[in-house]
Amino acid sequence: MKRTVDRYFFLWALLAPVTSVLILPTVQGTVPAFMMCFLSLFVVSVAGGQERPRYFGLLCMCVLIWLLFFALSQFADLLVNYVVSFHDVVLNRVTDHSFVMRSSLFTQSLYLAAVMLFGVFVFVYYDERWDRVLIAGGVLMALFGLYEFVFFSIVGHTGDFLTNRGFGTALGKEAVARLDSQRIVLAGHTFERLRSLTGEPSMYAFSIFPYWIYARAASRSRWPSLLIGISLILTASTTAAVGLICALAVRALRMRVDVLKCLLAVLAMLVLAYLFRHTLLAFYQHGILDKIEGKNASGHERFGYFLGSVKFWLSLPLLNQFVGIGFGYVRSTDMASTLLVNNGILGVLLFSFIFLYPVFRLDWSEKSMALRQCLVSVYVMMMVSVPEFSYLAPWAFVALAYHRLNHGTRAASPYAVDSADAGAALPLTSGYGA
């Protein structure tokens, strides 16, 4: 039975980062990894072993939390005694004019259910041997993205023969500017920004950045992290830059600074910057100035969506400000304002707790440090520029962090087997082996 669970996850891990391929091209939710989320219920029921009760117990707890937010938000909506105007926000389903029990509440909750099933599965059944296939999923995405980049550079049109899903139709002007924003001109040559099978460069950076961090700590070979790192650079995405800054900030908490090495590194960076000054200036113009000036739908327009969502939230009654108007109602261009409107202050606090609790509780071993960097980077990227909660890949690292944290708690209990490294690098084993 353990082999069944292992093999199922091995396929699942390879497909988890893929979001631009649909089993049924006319049905948006039929991403292969999402379908495997729901099929995992059957797998656990048949081959779940002795961890089956814990799996279903955690799943029930997640459902109860969802039901609590569901009941509170819809009750608050019923108390509103005026017609709510959605003029300032972007709705998930513009054709639905209702306020209570909107259809998007249920369709978006299906995506949330997939995330719950994936996260609980990884948390309960994770085995250290899964690291290799987990990283392999990121490497495959990087390789496909590099193939696309080279193909476009040589032929002049996209080489993606797998994507069959449309993106961005709900964001107005962004949908029109999306194709142009995926290309960049450097030294007179046009390149396609790497996006692989995620639909757009920023979503690739968001999904694959944790793989790069974790591969550096969990893989003996440097090739996985090198390939993924190169692919992230070729996205030319500010989302990846935000993730890198966050990861470096977390690493700096435990870093011993060598002044001489720092000076040499700065000198080397200055030399490289001078040698590639024209390329860097072109990237700075396209990746930063154009966004600030609103030339590619990522600057003023995104900030306008944020301000509109906050303005809408401030206009709501007090109870709605605390519990929101309903999960999946609106979708801004950042998770912070999206959560604030949909789930209120309580939703923002719960979401922040889920991501940041392990950051303060994990030990300082290399893998724990990598997971800490992953969580902080993903959290900031989501809150600032990526309102996509249903991409499965980042949630794998959230589940790994909680698994490691739970394993450390068990090891530290008075009934656990003594270990000299209980507070440092704890060996991770599946509950199956108990």
Outline:
The chain crosses the membrane at residues 7-24, 30-48, 55-76, 105-126, 133-155, 226-250, 262-284, 304-327, 339-360, 380-402. The protein has 16 helices and two strands.
Straight-line distance between termini: 14 Å
How many helical stretches? 16
In percent terms, what proportion of residues is strand? under 5%
Which structural category fits the helices and strands? mainly alpha
Q: Please give the oligomerization state of what you see.
A: single chain
Gross geometry: globular
Which spans have pLDDT < 50 for at least 5 consecutive residues?
169-180, 292-297, 410-434
Number of distinct beta strands: 2
| Portion in helices | 55-70%
Order of helices and strands: HHHHHHEEHHHHHHHHHH
- Into how many domains do the coordinates divide? 1
Query: Residue-averaged pLDDT, rounded?
Result: 83
What is the C-alpha radius of gyration, as a whole number of Å? 22 Å
For the largest sheet, list the strands in their spatial order. 1-2
